[in-house]
Task: structure prediction
Amino acid sequence: MHCRYLCAKQYIINAMKIYPLLLSLLCSSAMCAETLHLSTPSTSLVLDATPGNRLSLLHYGGRVTDADIKNLDGGIDAYPAYGIYPEHEAALSITHADGGMVTDLSVDSVTKSQGDDGAEITTITLRDSAYPVTVKVNYRTYPGEEIIESWAEITNGEKGEITLNRFMSAFLPVRMGDVWLSSLYGSWANEARIEQRPLTHGVTMIKNKDGVRNSHTSHAEVMLSLDGCPSENNGRVIGAALEYTGNYKLMIDTGDSNHHRFFAGINEENSAYRLKKGETFVTPPLALTYSAEGLSGASRNFHRWGRNHRLHAGDTPRKILLNSWEGVYFNIDEKGMDSMMADIASMGGELFVMDDGWFGTKYHRDSDNAALGDWTVDTGKLPHGIDGLLDAADRHGIKFGIWIEPEMTNTVSELYEKHPEYVIKAPHRNPTTGRGGTQLVLDMANPKVQDIVFEFVDTLMTRYPRIDYIKWDANAPIMEHGSQYLPADRQSHLYIDWHKGLTATLDRIRRAHPDVTIQACASGGGRANWGMLPWFDEFWTSDNNDALQRIYMQWGTSYFFPAIAMASHISAAPNHQTFRRIPVKFRADVAMSGRMGLELQPRDMTEEERTICRNAVNDYKQVRHIVQLGDLYRLLSPYDGKGSASLMYITPEKDDAVFFWWKTETFMNQQLPRIPMAGLDPDATYTVTELNRIDNTPLPCEGKSYTGRYLMDQGLELPLTHNVDYHKNTDYSSRVLRLTVSK
Ligand code: GLA
Result:
């Protein structure tokens, strides 16, 4: 039944007298309320959804009461469409079947439904009085979570085709004041760097056009600090994360109104999308959060929701692994793999992952210029095949994982020889190649390509069910605009249909193989986004394993993503990317703050390095649940230039915590700040134990107990160097402390 007909006030009053039960039933499916209050435990989003009017946003922020709601005014169009007052940026722009450019939407009805995981979805259906176009604006809340997701569904009811010129997921007006934007920028091997700036007049645009991966450079997530210069643990913050893994656009338009106008969605550039009559376009969701506990508070909201509802197997602690890449690169062979398995097992590790270089029959994967797509074992390197490796892993008492790059091929491959029509390629031109001078991207918009990708992964997992882990790589962008599958009038759908094809294939893979752990790697950190993680257990944070630079990259990554998803490996010294020599203690202390693993040739380690790694693996096992499933409190940012950085994780019960401190620069007699902790129970008493200890004597705080109140007020005094034998001194210093509530 249409809400419009139910909403006459007289009708409601009579109905309430006569049919209270009937009314409540009707109102739960087709709500009558004009004001919608969507809430989380401590936030509210309030909309005026009066039928016949524009949908307008009255409030997004801290939780409000009914009394407050009654007095809210000054609503702003919650999903502005292009056409009337065209000088303003819009969330939606349509060329109608008759060429008309104006869309003017008003509320038609409101419905509520149950989503997965106990989520509640509120859908406001908007219609245009001149054109039969329907826009559903959706908001999703989850019990106990501080996230509200918003997305749009646009349906063409016109006789002919319409073209979507812009199709943002959501729009949010943010009241001007002293609002600061925190965003992530970067590049390959330097991902997730933080940039913070006050919002000023004009347009701030953050976007991506890679086509395949979207987080090497800027990220599709931002934080807005509403009370001036961003602070980790104080002040009001709005966080926004677009749940999309393709081209995106985040735009903040600050003009002559009182509001910064924030838009987020798929990047519409070169992606105009045509809808036939009856077709619907669904945008990816934008996840919004609000916290009055600073940036760290907003991060905790994303982490908790992500682990509970978005990340694949987000509640299951991850294994400690050794990955073969930086240890042997393409030089895979059976003996070498066996020895690496023995080494990681002897250090207490739980999983070995064989990286690139294991496949190819006609063409061999000896470097990056051949064989992608030819997923047959190179028996010259691995005479006993994958079964031989799985048997070896069993013998060593660990699990086995394998590297693949299924969305790609090389010009030098049997796949390309047989199916040149499967690759991305513009008409009348030779395909543009990437890595190794031969890499090509498969056209995931083509259902036949989706099938071969599915069948490859499905066959691998069906034939070798003991495979525990897949490292799924993606090492090329879309290098030219051209689908050999899409018709001429749908070429502009390439970027979007490519990702629809990818996610549909991932759906099939996950339905068939829900238990295998899959890492989203993309030349390092190219796929750290909430659009990818429902099918993946983690992402490779960066191809740069330099522990010092990782502190900065992991700090940025932690704004939006939990430690359980952030792969962080101890690599060799000198480091293969920066050539910096960092002692293994410091490398381990950085890796331990994420999903710890190793990425080196254990045979090249000294006995002392092995011992430190073995101890680190053992210590990490004791606190893994705190790091991976606990709440993050960032304490001192490396970006503040104070010579050190610090953060901590704590269990939700606040009975067990791990505190990390790393010195980021070294000068003689430097004076570094003492770090007040956060997130502890002020009234509980915590006992301190140092992990990964290398010092000859214990820290003064070792074994001592302090109240949470004291630790949060004063922190602990930490020496700036390690107390080790003279020749073992280095310019690096770091501490990992466990704080356990005395029972
Ligand atoms: C990418 C990944 C690396 C490694 C190589 C293999 O660069 O990010 O970790 O797997 O591919 O070719």
Q: What stands out?
A: DSSP finds 15 helices and 36 strands in the chain.
